[in-house]
Amino acid sequence: MKAISFLIVPLVLSAINSVASEASLTPQIDKLLERHVDEQRKSENLVGLGAIVIQNSKIIGLSVSGERKKGEGVPVSHQDLWHIGSITKSFTATMIARLVERGDLQWDTSIKDVFPGDKDIHPEWNDVTLGDLLSHTSGATPNFSLFVSLKHPNAGSERMAARESAVRHILSQRPDVNPGGTFVYSNVGYTIAGVIAEKIAGVSWENLIRKEVFSPLGIESGGFGAPEDIEGKLSQPWGHKELFGFTKSGKEDNTPIIGPAGTIHLSLNDLALYADEHLQGIQGRSSFLKRESFQRLHHPNLNNYAYGWVIGPPEELGVGDAHWHNGSNTMWYALLVILPDINAAIAITSNDGNFKVAEHSAWEIVKRLAKPLEVAHKKSLSFDAVKSTGN
């Protein structure tokens, strides 16, 4: 018995030390995040900046700094809503994956499948597929005309009709480049994909996002357009951009016609929840979609672009692969980064549309947290190994 006891003691001590080490990781990351967010926001003179870190499906850091509206002195909060711009594209692709799994669509569903025999559609569009549209290889132009961008149709059937009309105008003309062989980042392409989903499902893209993504994932803060500020009382952040040397604040957004390409807003907590579902899906541990659907969504095509995700960071982070996307409507900025090899995700948001500055700050935060998160991941693996040995 003494020999057995002697062998158990170091295991017990090791387990206690591992528990203590794991428990100490969360406040360490949280404090690092708080410091970096505040430093970046102040040094780059951003109006507001927020960030959240999730690892092993737990939020281990959440920090915000700055104001909801410049000069008003009302601080941003942990619960605030943020416009995420083109990160919306991955939500659209995720929603379509749900329809594909249900059998309502296929990844190779083509324009001619949805608009059969339509004489107004240029024949070079006929064989363009959902996969082409979601990977920016459809030949679609980057953006709609100024005339379309000025339209703000009401939600529901009016917006669906306006969206389809804008798409039909594009489809009536020859594609900008030959479909299938050239990468052209396109808000138009994602809008076409959204219209395809609307035509098949018979409901608006917004309702499809609510039904197929927000609701099953428990995202309660999700909405569309700039976050609503009830009666202008600064209950939510306002967007900001530089105009002729002055900072303009406002609640404007791009036309909702391009909703599928970039109009979602939500809280940092819910953005982390969404990111973690994709992280778990990449690793084959999510029941939200089949593993092959997540593999499709995150498989790089031309220019390392998957379906709403870029695979591989602009700069080497030294912690394995990265799946990311950023977004801006010129008055907000957001970046979402998934790091599968260290089981972590980081989201950074700002109500400042100074794109270059906000993007630099966001990636700077990611770079400064990457190694500490790698250390935390290795310690958690050691902790799991000790637990397994103890059992």
Automatic annotation (TrEMBL):
Signal peptide: 1-20
Pfam family, one: Beta-lactamase
Keywords: Signal
Start and end residues of each Beta-lactamase-related domain: 33-362
Alphabetical list of InterPro entries matching this protein: AmpC-like, Beta-lactam-related, Beta-lactam/transpept-like
PANTHER family found in the cross-reference section: BETA-LACTAMASE-RELATED DOMAIN-CONTAINING PROTEIN, D-ALANYL-D-ALANINE-CARBOXYPEPTIDASE/ENDOPEPTIDASE AMPH
Record-given protein name: Beta-lactamase family protein
Native organism: Microbulbifer elongatus
Organism lineage: Bacteria, Pseudomonadati, Pseudomonadota, Gammaproteobacteria, Cellvibrionales
